[in-house]
Amino acid sequence: MAKEIERKFLVSGKRWRLSADAGVSIKQGYLATMDDRSLRVRAYSDGRACLTLKIGQTALSRDEYEFEIDPAVAEEMLGQAIGTVIEKVRHEVEHKGFTWEVDVYGGRYSGLVVAEVELRDETDKPEIPDWVGREVTGDYRYSNQAMALSEGALRSSHEPQSQSG
What we know:
Distance between the termini: 40 Å
Number of strands: 9
CATH topology: Hypothetical Protein Pfu-838710-001
Number of domains: 1
Strand content: over 45%
Order of helices and strands: EEEEEHEEEEHH
Largest sheet: 8 strands, antiparallel, barrel
Oligomer: single chain
């Protein structure tokens, strides 16, 4: 079992692109959800696909079980997803010993840009890049699950990425 420990932030501006990789497109959908767990399927533009079970209610840390699956099976499962299939491009940005994942959302969440940093343990204190804005760790509205199930009402209230810097 792996432990997912991460912090999530809104992104301010476009400076992150200066050191980002080319990115990979992701389609993800939820097959089952409960208060403290979710079963998610993802298909990546590079041909990978995975099925992930996440368990836990804390904002910072959850148990995570991830399994590689056949991409054709993933596409079939996405057709059975609950709610909206989330579409985003994920970029990786290295900053002071940590890898930041910057998700640029498309579709109904176009304009939303979120950065996550995975921690080794809950006491890690990564240096926050200057392109990172407000922290939204624990704000359910910014979870992919809430967006897929339209429970977060971000369609009209998310803070779009600033066009400056």
